[in-house]
Every structure is written in structure tokens, then in C-alpha cells.
Amino acid sequence: MTENNTTTGRYAGKKVVIVGGSSGFGLATARELIAGGARVLITGRTRATLDAARAELGERAVAVRGDASVTVDVEALADRVKAEFGTVDALYVSAGINGFAPFEATSEELFDKLLTINARGPYFTVQKLVPLLAEGAGIVLTTSVANVL
Prior knowledge:
The chain is α/β, with parallel strands linked by helices. It has a single domain, classed as Rossmann fold (3-Layer(aba) Sandwich). The protein contains 5 helices and 5 strands, in the order αβαβαβαβαβ. It has helices spanning 5-8, 24-35, 47-57, 71-85, 108-129; strands at residues 15-19, 39-44, 61-65, 88-93, 133-141. A 5-stranded parallel beta sheet has the order 3-2-1-4-5, sandwiched between helices. Strand 4 (88-93), helix 5 and strand 5 form a beta-alpha-beta unit. Helix 4 packs parallel to helix 5 (108-129). It is globular.
């Protein structure tokens, strides 16, 4: 990639929030967007992983520690996004966890944890960030069980 990609690339001038952007699909997406000229704000729950991702992505990335399943963290994220970007062109929610047990052995605790992180978290993340979406912005939600295939 050349220096010019940050001003003339496919995503030049775009601002993207990637929830769960410190690893996996989220980090891979952040790499591609930055290579195309975008600025990204990534989130992650683990400080060390988040810091490593931020170091790899460089100055066009902002890293915010937070848990998408915790309302206070999502509200703080919305405040930070507004302060950093004002509005955003895309929101990509890639945060989630896997937890598997046979149907008859699934505990209420596991069931509640999966729903909180994989359904409630994305729902309220989108709810809090919708007011910050620019005209024509997009939202992408992903889930995957690729790690067990």
C-alpha cells in the first residue's frame, strides 16, 4: 500500500466503528479498511489484545476498551465515537462468544451469557450508535462458529 491510499483509496475519508475489532474478523476488516484509507475505531474487552491490535493498525485506528454486553461500556463507546468522529459511515458489530453444550446439559448460566453477549449486546450497541450514523451509513452484524467447524 502506498501513502496515497489514505487520501485516495476506496475508503478514503470514511469513518468506521468496529465492535470486536481487536481480533478475528473485526481486526481483519480494520486492516482492509485502513489500507483503503479509512479511519477506524475498534473495541475489545481485553486490554492487551486491544493494545496489540492498535499498535498493528497504526495511527488511523483508535482503540477503546469495552464490553458490548455492558450498558455503561456501550454508552461510553457512543460518547467516545462522537468525540473522535462526530458521525460514522459504517458500524460493524463483530463481537461475540461461542459456548457449546449438549441441549440437555445447557445451563441457564451459559444460555443467559450467550444471549447477553451475542444478542443483547449487539442490539443495544446499534441502538446507542444509530444517532451517530451519517446519511447513507451502513450497519453490519456478524456471527460465526468458524472456530468449531
